[in-house]
Amino acid sequence: MRTSSLPIERFAIAGKPIRCPHCQGTEFSSRQVLMNTRGVTFFNLDWLNRGAFALTCQTCGRIEWFSRRPDAGG
Known about the structure:
By secondary structure, the protein is mostly beta strands. About 5% of the residues lie in helices and about 35% in strands. The chain has one helix and six strands. It has a three-stranded antiparallel sheet with strand order 2-1-6, with no helix packed on it. Strands 3-4-5 form a three-stranded antiparallel sheet, with no helix packed on it. The longest helix has 5 residues, at about 40. The radius of gyration is 14 Å and the shape is elongated.
């Protein structure tokens, strides 16, 4: 089941391949996301929020979040 129109890749972090903890899938789409906070959003300063990287499993759709960019090609 393809869950995104983004490119599908395999990823690694800290030298280990990333596998979905739910279905053991190894193919993910990725995107950079903002971790919004209420106070910053209230003042329309969303650009000050920290970013994260979200990987979406292409088998089951589970989303895994990372504070730093995973390495592509894992």
